[in-house]
């Protein structure tokens, strides 16, 4: 079992930045590709970003490319999502997830473990 706890969400003005963290416990995340997903009110969960097990490959949704950066520190068992140039449409609950595979996949149903989420609100 892998327990995932997200932090770093909050309220920010459009154009601002936030850095989300996902701290894992129970098992080392070095065996997992890791991903971030989000869900806005009234919408389905969508893929945001993923990073391979080694950290050598990343995958981003088109809507966040060039603005968001996913990274990982396996020694700290933590994954990060740096979010810059935030827009009101980025407002959502952001979830961290672990995928028992090597590659950075964008399909949420393939992920094995999920955190509880952290709220990100971007005001205009």
Structural account:
A hairpin with a 6-residue loop joins strand 4 (33-39) and strand 5 (46-51). The strands form two sheets. Strands 2, 4, 5, 6, 9, 10 and 11 form a seven-stranded mixed β-sheet that branches. A four-stranded antiparallel β-sheet has the order 1-3-8-7, with no helix packed on it. It has strands at residues 3-7, 10-13, 18-25, 33-39, 46-51, 58-60, 68-73, 78-83, 92-99, 113-114, 118-123. With 124 residues, the chain is mainly beta. It is built from no helices and eleven strands.
Pick out its properties:
124 residues; mainly beta; 49% strand; seven-stranded mixed sheet; four-stranded antiparallel sheet
Write a brief structural summary.
With 124 residues, the protein is mainly beta. Helix content is 0%, strand content 49%.
